[in-house]
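Known limitations

C-alpha cells in this collection are predictions and should be treated as such. Users comparing against experimental data should check residue numbering before alignment. To illustrate the layout, the record for Major facilitator superfamily (MFS) profile domain-containing protein is reproduced below. The input appears on top and the generated C-alpha cells appear beneath it.
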Amino acid sequence: MLLDRDDRSDAKLDKVLSDIGPASSRSLFIALSMCFLWTLSGLTTMSPSYLSARPSCGPEFVTAGDHALTVINWVMAIECLPINSHAIYSFILGLAWVLGYCAITPMALIWPHWRGMQLLTSIPALIFGVIILFTLPESISWLVVRGKEPEVQKWINAANKSAKKKITVNAKQIIMENCSERDMEEESFMAQIKNLLRDKYTMLCVAMESILWIVDFMGYSQLSIAGTGIIKDNCHLGYIFTGVVEIVCYAILPIFLDKLGRKPTVMIVHFIGFLSLLGMFFTQRYADSNVAFLIVWLIAKFSFASAFMCCFVYGSEIFSTSCRSMCVGICVTLSNLGAMASLHVSDLDSFTFPGFYLLVFAFCSILCILATIPLPETAHRVNERKNSCSELSSVEYIKKTKL
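Generated C-alpha cells:
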C-alpha cells in the first residue's frame, strides 16, 4: 500500500520470498527481509528518474517483499496465539494497516517527490528490522514442528512469566503428542512441494483459497481506487477516507468470526458485497450527486475489506504449520492477478455498457461463496484429519496444550 506497484513483478518475487519462510526461521526471515528492503529502497533513491528505478531495484521489489513480509508476519503471529485470539488479532492488524495507509497522505504533503516518499516509507523497515532481530522470539509452532525441544521449553518458560494461567505441559510432551519423527525431519523445498501435491484435499483448499484471494484483492483494489474520487477536488482527503472507513470493518469483523464462525462469515460478507455491487450498478449514473451511491460504495468497501481480512484469518487456519507459509504464499502470489485485473476491469464498459464491470465483480462475489463451500470450518471444532504436510495444525495443538 505504501508504494506504487508493478504486480507482474510482484507475482514472481512474492513466490520466492513467501516460500523462503517455511524452510527458515520466521523471526529471522522477517528481520533480515525488512533490513534488505530498506537497502533496496535506499538504492532506488539514487536513480536518475522514477522510471529508470523500476527495472533495477525499484518499487516492484520493495512491494513484493512487503507482500511476503505481511504473510510471514501474520503466519508467525497466529502460530503463537490460541485460536480464540485470532479474530481480535485481525482487528489489531487491520488497524495497523489503516494507520499505515493513511500515513501516506501527510508524507506526500511534506515531501511530494518520489525520492522523498521512497525514503520516508523505507526508514521504518530498518528501525523495526533491527528491533525484531534482537527481540522477537521464534514461532512456537515452527519450533514444535522442527522438534527443537530446548527452544520450545524456553518459549514456555517465557510465557509462564506473565501468564495468569500457567502452562503445565513441558516441551517434550508437546512435541511427542503432535509430531512424528518424520515430521521433524528437515525437508528440501522440492520435497515439500511433492508432499503438498500428493495431498489432494490440501490442494483443493489452496485452489479455493486462491480464488478468494484473487477476487477479494481485485475488489478491494478497485474500490480503493474509486474511493479517491469520493471527495471532489481533494484526492488527499479522498485517499484518507478510503482507509478510515475500513476501521468499522475491522472493529466488527472479530465479533462475526467468533460468533458465527469463519466459514459463514466469509459467505455473508461476499453476499453483502454482491448486493452492494448491484446497488452501485443501479445508482452509478447519479454518482456525482446521489448520496445513495456513496452509501452503497461504503457497504461494498466494508464487505471487501472484511473479505480480504478473512483471507488472512481463515486461510491461515486451514493449513498445517509445515506447509502454511507455502500454501498462503501461493494464494498471495496469485492474488496479484486480481490486483492487475482491478486496473483494467472497468475497461470492459467500453465494449459493453456502463457499469458492466460492477456486474463482473458481483458475479465474482457469488463465485467466492461457492468456493467457500468445500473449505472446512476452523473456529468451533478441531479437524482431526492429518495430511501429508503432516502434523496437527497449530490451531489444534495450541488448543490442546492451552498455549
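For this record: The mean pLDDT is 75. Residues 200-227 form the longest helix (28 residues). Please report discrepancies through the issue tracker.
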